[in-house]
Design goal:
binds 5-O-phosphono-beta-D-ribofuranosylamine, alpha/beta, 2 domains, 204 residues, Rossmann fold
Amino acid sequence: MSHPIAVFVSGTGRHLENFVRLAQQGALDTQVVLVLCDRHGAGAIERARKFGLRPLTLLPSEYEDTAAFSRAAFEAAQEAGAQTVLLAGFLRLLHIPTSWTNRVLNIHPSLLPAFGGKGYYGSRVHKAVLERGCTLSGCTVHYVDQEYDHGRILVQRTVPVRASDTPDDLAARVFDEELVAFPEALRLHMDSRSADTATERGGA
Ligand code: GRF
């Protein structure tokens, strides 16, 4: 059976599209069972509909606090039957329920732990990399814990930084690698979960 994933989005949904296409092509043994968006009007909503998905919008302002919003988000993932949650351009800090430990993956457009944490998102990351004079940048896929951009790293891919780069140039070069890194990380994650299940069966 394909591995059921929930994709949480706030932005344009390019990663969401990549996952849907790879699944359709049989290049990734997954199925998107939930798209959850935290704001009205995000490009990801239209993009999801284009693929016949019906995104769920949950607005943080309608919840008492981050903990209540997180509970609702993970309940929705659970109800949809997701085994893994992907934060694909999802900008909000979540409280990860214990039952979801090592089952939530995030992609970040820098080589963590550099240029990560609160305030480092979108073009701010690339601007900071250029200002610092880095000659290398890249992207990181990691497990999500209770801190921004902090959990154990699954995959990193690097790109050169050129002297003439604008933040947009660098973002585009990094994004090309993100499209490879995120599916690669999900594959590693799925493989490790199947290995865990096999060990549990063997040990029983
Ligand atoms: C990517 O740069 C990713 O690293 C960041 O959000 C961007 C993707 O957004 N976390 P989207 O998939 O186009 O919505």
